[in-house]
Amino acid sequence: MDQVQESYDEFNLNFRIEDTVIVNQTEMEGFNAFFLGNQSTCQQSVVEGVRVLSYKIPATLPLGQFLKKQLYKGEFLSILSNILNQLLYFEDRNMPIKKVLLNTKYMYIELSNLHVQLIYMPIEKEFTDCNVCEFVQNFISKIRFADMQCVNCVDQILHYLDSRLMFSLREFYTFIIELQKEDILKDDIDLGEGETTVLQQMSYNNITPYLVRSRTNALIPIEKTEFLVGKSSECDYQIPDNRKVSRKHCSFRISNGECYIRDENSTNHTYVNGKMIQPGFDVMLKNDDYIRMGDEEFKYWVR
């Protein structure tokens, strides 16, 4: 169920949830606390005999509709930074970002201040892993540019994303804030007599994902976009001293700033946080995940 009722200044949405699904009250309270421009509220209720999550969203337009207009650099950066800041709010409170509906169809904007209202699903169920970097790229692809300043800004952002082996939400947010500061300073600084100023951008260190082998404490950098682990000499990291590790046991793949693990049809399987993963399917990793290949244990760590 995805029923939408709308007025000029408020949207009401109902999402059906199964009777067996548990609503996380702590997460609901975290969402209902007004934060960073988001003043939407969520409550559990029953509509026509159906159990639902009901949202009241104070906003003027669906964000997708707003993006049909041409955007200036300042508008674009304001919207993007607001979305990223809210995602950091969830992350800092251990509210999984994958429970945010990262789709402009479910985002709403208040035109008076460009605050974006996000929807968070505070329920205990399996959610598909989300890729924030991929969302940002898709979001950018929907932008219609008002001028070359916005075009150049988007080029800077895409270059930033392409140049990073791993994606860090916090570092990317800092980068966007610096672009906003640059925009404000360019508007405010007037040196006179034709003088100009060059604003130095911050330098950002690339992020490297590692495996930490529990038995030896070896620190293994994943420095390739395709990284194979197993007994074979063809592997990027070899484990020749464990019979339960297959010749080509599992692989790690870096895509759009995220790291994924895949079991390569190993004999004794691959586990992430104690759960066996299906061979041939990519599973997105997060910092401090525990990985077991047969009985060989690793910790996934991003510096």
From TrEMBL:
It holds the Pfam family FHA. It comes from Coprococcus hominis (ex Arizal et al. 2022). This is FHA domain-containing protein. Residues 227-277 form the FHA domain.
